[in-house]
Amino acid sequence: MLVTADISQPLDGLPQKLWQQYSNTSLPFVALAYQPARTAASPVWAGPLTTNLAPAIADSPARRALAKQLMGGLSAVWLLIESGDKSADDAAASMLATELKTMEKELELPPPARDDPKMRARIPLKIAFAIQRVSRADPAEAAFIAQLLAGENQTNQPPIPIACPVFGRGRALATLSGSELSSDVIESASRFLIGACSCEVKELNPGKD
């Protein structure tokens, strides 16, 4: 949804809160935000309006690769946002790979329920996970990483490896780092991702688009 705000007129709601943060910036200016209740009016990304703004916000090589893998039938793609410390990033990737291979062998698809909707997609149902590494140093992915971390309880000081499983039509479940990036939590997230649907309303499910 696009909301325009004329600063020569009184503002209210989210535009007012955002303008209070960026009143010293040059115009025109764009702030990308999730629902206020989710991020307390903190923008996902903010900056000057330029001709290449829309592509940067909506598209990137990592997002295209992610979409291609999900359309290939993977249960989820675990994005690994690298810290820049190669040893730490490699260790996180190795641990993820080991745990996800175990999950692929141990987990089973739930039996279909009587009231499940009819499958219309040709994508095969299977249990398969992949890891996709995303570099914080890649300017093409800056907006994507900002969207993934918005509203999450993550710190960038100092940067640490952060994992985020993405599933379905591009819904990110949660970000995991530090003590949360453990075998138990990876197993719990994997079981949730391949489990039976538990809610008919998307906003009541964890994660964000």
What does this structure look like?
By secondary structure, this protein is of the alpha+beta class. The chain has helices spanning 13-22, 36-39, 53-58, 61-71, 86-106, 142-149, 183-194, and strands spanning 29-32, 45-48, 76-81, 129-134, 162-167, 171-172, 176-177. Strands 3, 4, 5, 6 and 7 form a five-stranded mixed sheet that branches. Helix 5 (86-106) links the parallel strand 3 (76-81) and strand 4. The mean pLDDT is 85.
Provide a concise account of the structure shown.
The chain is of the alpha+beta class and 209 residues long. It contains seven helices and seven strands, in the order αβαβααβαβαβββα.
Tell me the number of helical segments per DSSP (H or I, 4 or more residues long). Answer: 7
**What is the averaged pLDDT score?**
85
Helix-strand topology string:
HEHEHHEHEHEEEH
- How much β-strand is present in the residues? 5-15%
Low-confidence stretches: none
Q: Find the structural class using helix and strand composition.
A: alpha+beta
The count of strands amounts to: 7
Specify the helix fraction band.
Answer: 25-40%
Overall geometry comes to globular
Characterize the biggest β-sheet: 5 strands, mixed
| End-to-end gap | 14 Å
Radius of gyration: 19 Å
Descriptive key words:
7 helices, 209 residues, alpha+beta, five-stranded mixed beta sheet, single chain, 14% strand
